[in-house]
TrEMBL record:
This is Rieske domain-containing protein. Keywords: 2Fe-2S, Iron, Iron-sulfur, Metal-binding, Oxidoreductase. GO terms for molecular function: 2 iron, 2 sulfur cluster binding; iron ion binding; oxidoreductase activity. Coiled coil: none annotated. PANTHER family: CHOLINE MONOOXYGENASE, CHLOROPLASTIC. Its cofactor is Fe cation.
Length: 453
């Protein structure tokens, strides 16, 4: 019997009462700060964000795998701060990537393995724990610098397969910062994910234009009509959760062609592939779209053992639905069914210009035991495990990232133009865009010192 429209428009927490992975968070009172153009253009606002927010939040630096052995290191920037992460004898050390002699940037490579780091300017050399081990003409200094100089450090943690860091020692620890997010990320068991794509793109827009976009499903029908083949973006069906600390979540019913998808009595290729992969006859579901999702969940459970997959840690919703987390302030983690793929979509502030940002795009895949390739229906692409993936870095417009992400990224400069205009007063948000409001409310909470203390 086909599901009625009302039955299709049920949110995950309504469909699975008592399931901890989809529990609806209580709706907080929103501050409703006005989202005006100057938040995206003004140097003063950018400076306030830096002083009160960026230094106090925990950010993902890279994959723990990239720092697995002593001496393995990688570098990245946050705003104007160059940062160095290196595996030392007891874990991963985080250092400002700055020589203590006269301040030259110390490590110029993206990543690698070293037993020490030498500054190219006057040759000061540092060990893996940040200690200065050699300095030219050390007897020429009033006091031997090797006796007291170290690289400046900050806190790091490893969690969910990522290296995390926070630049302010007085800010709360990672567990407090993540709050409810910690258990949610743990539920996916992401530790064995492998990064297969790594892009950093300089975009001509403020960092918030990018991350505002990943807070809502309202734009799917217009910007990504192809997604209606596989996800139910109808406003009644998408679940939005707002959490303490400024984090939030959006759950989109997956393997569930949108009621807005036409024609309703055909099956998109992506769904046909999903069904065939699990030995379900697609013909039976041509005009029963609402039944695909529960059928897939049931079959995945029944056949997981024979397919060599362990789904025991996942809920039914996690077998089919798309979970999009926002880790405050700017890291969207889009986790696909079974946790098989994760997208990290993250913006970082530009060092100087409030009207530019750096957009990071990572794809993380879980390869089945013993296999090095994986076909991804959603993106219609085959992913390959390769330890030496290239970190592609370019400016917007020079290269494509991928079809779906280009759609999100290409709208950003168009929005930024509006932020400068006298004709734009403030954003007018609908209920399904309340994560955007929540993000801006919490930026203001940080700036006022009400959060992150
Ligand atoms: S600035 Fe590094 S050795 Fe002089
Ligand atoms: Fe989008």
């Amino acid at each position: 019997m086909s599901l009625t429209m009302e039955e299709r428009n049920i949110t995950p927490s309504e469909a699975y009462p008592g399931d901890k992975t989809t529990t609806k968070a209580a709706e907080p009172e929103l501050l409703k700060v006005e989202i005006t153009g100057d938040r995206y253009t003004s140097k003063e606002f950018k400076d306030q964000e830096w002083a009160h927010m960026w230094r106090r939040v925990w950010m993902i630096a890279g994959m723990a795998d990239d720092c697995a052995e002593p001496g393995d290191f990688f570098t990245c920037d946050l705003g104007h701060e160059p940062l160095l992460f290196v595996r030392g004898k007891d874990g991963i050390n985080g250092f400002y990537n700055i020589c203590q002699h006269r301040g030259a940037k110390l490590v110029l490579q993206d990543k690698g393995t070293m037993d020490s780091f030498s500054c190219i300017y006057h040759g000061w050399k540092y060990g893996l724990e940040g200690e200065l081990v050699e300095a030219q003409d050390r007897d020429d200094f009033e006091r031997d610098p090797c006796e007291h100089v170290r690289l400046a450090d900050f806190r790091t943690e490893i969690f969910a397969g990522f290296v995390w860091y926070c630049l302010d020692d007085d800010a709360p620890g990672l567990d407090d910062f993540l709050g409810d997010m910690k258990e949610q990320l743990e539920s996916w068991q992401l530790n064995d994910g492998f990064r297969v794509e790594h892009f950093t793109v300089e975009l001509p827009c403020n960092w918030k234009v990018v991350i505002d976009n990943f807070q809502e499903g309202y734009h799917i029908r217009t910007l990504h009509p192809q997604l209606m083949e596989t996800v139910n973006e109808n406003k009644e069906s998408v679940q939005y959760d707002l959490y303490d600390g400024g984090h939030s979540r959006m759950i989109l019913l997956g393997c569930d062609p949108s009621p807005n998808f036409q024609p309703q009595n055909t099956l998109p290729d992506s769904i046909t592939h999903m069904l065939t992969k699990w030995d379900i006859n697609p013909e039976e579901y041509k005009d029963r779209h609402g039944e695909i999702r529960p059928a897939l969940q049931q079959t995945k459970r029944e056949k997981s053992a024979e397919r060599g997959k362990d789904f025991s840690h996942l809920s039914d919703a996690q077998l089919t639905d798309n979970f999009l987390y926002d880790l405050f302030p700017s890291c969207a983690l889009s986790v696909y069914p079974e946790g098989e793929y994760v997208w990290l979509l993250r913006s970082r502030p530009h060092p100087d210009d409030p009207e530019k940002c750096l957009f990071d795009y990572w794809t993380i895949a879980k390869f089945p035991e013993g296999e090095d390739t994986l076909y991804w229906e959603h993106m219609d692409m085959t992913l390959t495990r390769d330890a030496e993936i290239e970190h592609k870095q370019f400016k917007w417009g020079e290269e494509s990232i991928s079809f779906g992400i280009d759609q999100d990224v290409d709208i950003a400069p168009i929005v930024q133009q509006g932020m400068r205009s006298h004709g734009f007063k403030k954003a007018i948000l609908c209920h399904q865009e309340r994560r955007v409001q929540f993000l801006h409310d919490n930026i203001d909470r940080y700036i006022k010192g009400d959060l992150g203390r």
